[in-house]
Write a structure and sequence with these properties.
By secondary structure, this protein is α/β, with parallel strands linked by helices. It has helices at 11-21, 164-172, 210-221, 236-246; strands at residues 27-31, 44-45, 55-56, 60-63, 78-86, 100-104, 116-119, 123-125, 129-132, 142-143, 154-156, 177-181, 185-191, 195-196, 207-208, 225-232, 251-255. The strands form six sheets. The protein has a six-stranded mixed β-sheet with strand order 7-4-6-5-9-8, with no helix packed on it. A three-stranded parallel β-sheet has the order 16-13-17, with helices on both faces.
């Protein structure tokens, strides 16, 4: 017998009923790390390329591919004059000319005139020159400008949940603050004279109000904010008062009071 034959609403249909009745909340601006787990409320557009310039993918030597394209054996390597050294975070001041090379570190911008990088493992450097034992392809070991992100592209669309990967990308794009959807406040109310809360004196005639805390944990796990209203007694006035408190929240969840008996 399926759920409808039992008089029960199927889960998917029940979820859709709730979603159809729910309003989308407003936006708030939060710091990058505070946005973790939240839902993005804006499209994130790249303000610049990343990498912002062609850069070296290896420690090695920036060279002209044309100087290496001829066939040669290990016994007769190509010897190039080293005219400068460029660590990461610096920019070359010289242009690579015919028969020249610039020593370069991973992440450093490619010098003018160079169109390939030879890995240091495939060379034999000396203070003023470098012996290269193996030819490379044009643009070898170069990460081109905009390889990861191009200016003007939508990198993270609105409605995306921000996970560590998205947080890292937001940092790459220098977004210290972002708009996210506000977290719904979910009021939780348990009902019944038989219930006792966790901090009450133990009574053999009572049962512990565990539902409120299980629901609150589920609410918190989704990213919403649980608001515990405590326990409403089996009394119309007490119920009315507690429900009125709960209606100030975005969502009110009641546990108990669903059977057909008098109370």
């Amino acid at each position: 017998m399926d759920m409808k034959q039992q008089g029960l609403t199927p889960l998917g249909e029940a979820q859709q009923t709730v979603l159809d009745a729910a309003d989308v909340l407003g936006l708030e601006k939060v710091g990058l790390l505070d946005a973790l787990g939240r839902v993005l409320g804006e499209d994130i557009i790249a303000a610049r390329d990343n990498p912002p310039w062609d850069n070296s993918a290896m420690d090695g030597f920036a060279v002209r591919w044309e100087d290496l394209k001829q066939e040669h054996a290990i016994a007769k390597p190509v010897v190039l004059k080293v005219i400068e050294e460029v660590p990461a975070g610096k920019v070359a001041t010289k242009t690579v000319g015919v028969g020249e090379a610039i020593r370069i570190m991973t992440g450093a911008p490619i010098p003018r005139g160079a169109n390939a990088v030879v890995k240091v493992e495939e060379t034999e450097p000396s203070p003023d020159s470098v012996r290269i034992f193996k030819p490379v392809e044009r643009h070898a070991n170069i990460r081109p400008q905009g390889e990861d992100v191009k200016r003007g592209d939508c990198i993270i669309p609105k409605g995306t949940q921000i996970r560590p990967a998205e947080a890292g990308m937001l940092a790459i794009l220098a977004k210290s603050f972002v708009f996210v959807y506000q977290r719904p406040r979910v009021a939780i109310l348990s009902t019944g004279d038989e219930l006792a809360d966790l901090d009450e004196r133990f009574d053999e005639d009572k049962i512990i109000n565990s539902n409120s805390y299980g629901i609150a944990a589920a609410v918190q796990e989704t990213g919403a904010v649980p608001v515990l209203l405590g326990i409403a007694k089996d009394d119309p006035a007490a119920l009315k008062e507690k429900i009125a408190q709960g209606l100030t929240a975005d969502i009110l969840v009641l546990s108990g009071g669903v059977s057909m008996v008098d109370y």
